[in-house]
Amino acid sequence: MKSLFNQADRAALLARLERLTPDIPPRWGKFNATRMVAHLNDVVRMATGELAVVPRPGKMTNVVMRNLFIYFMPFPKSVPTAPELLARGSSAEFSAECAAFRVLVEKAAARPVNASWPNHSLFGGMTRNNWGALGHKHIVHHFKQFGI
User: Fold this and answer.
1) In DSSP terms, which residues pair with 124 in a beta bridge?
2) Along the chain (148 residues), what's the average pLDDT of each consecutive run of 10 residues?
3) Does residue 114 sit within a domain?
4) Which of 36, 64, 82, 108 has the lowest CB atom count within 10 Å?
């Protein structure tokens, strides 16, 4: 499984980011390229505990459901997300968000292996491996949204 914590996987994501331009239209959904990168940045901030997100309890906190989604199911299109992960979108600036993305994914990857990880708003308790796999899967999902 690909992960944000694997250097080669991270490098591939950063290379794909270089192909993104602010004027590329989405293939689906409401994001423009700038808002998408701002959203991804906020998701990485949530993963590292820098951005608090209100929990949404439900069946996805079950370990089987969580692992099924993270490791086996395709990422669905146009799924609602936590409001906190959309809040900055209208004030985002493309080049600043891309620069922040590069820093944030490297910062997340540099966290100690034994560091504690915050809960996910939908999935609840998450391990380092969960965050790494879900983070990679989520970023790829949105990069595909813009054809990169």
Assistant:
1) 120
2) 97 98 96 95 94 86 92 90 76 92 97 93 94 98 97
3) yes
4) 64
Strand-pairing partners, residue 66, are: none
Residue 79: its pLDDT value, please? Answer: 81
Contact 88, 38 (CB under 8 A): yes
- The packing angle between helices 33-48 and 128-145, to 10°, is 180
Q: Which residues pair with 120 in a beta bridge?
A: 124
- Locate 118 and state its tokens: 């915050």
The total domain count for the chain is: 1
The residue among 120, 109, 96, 118 whose CA lies nearest residue 37 is 96
Asked if residue 80 is part of any domain, the answer here is yes
In the numeric block, which tokens belong to residue 106? 């490297």
Contact 65, 59 (CB under 8 A): yes
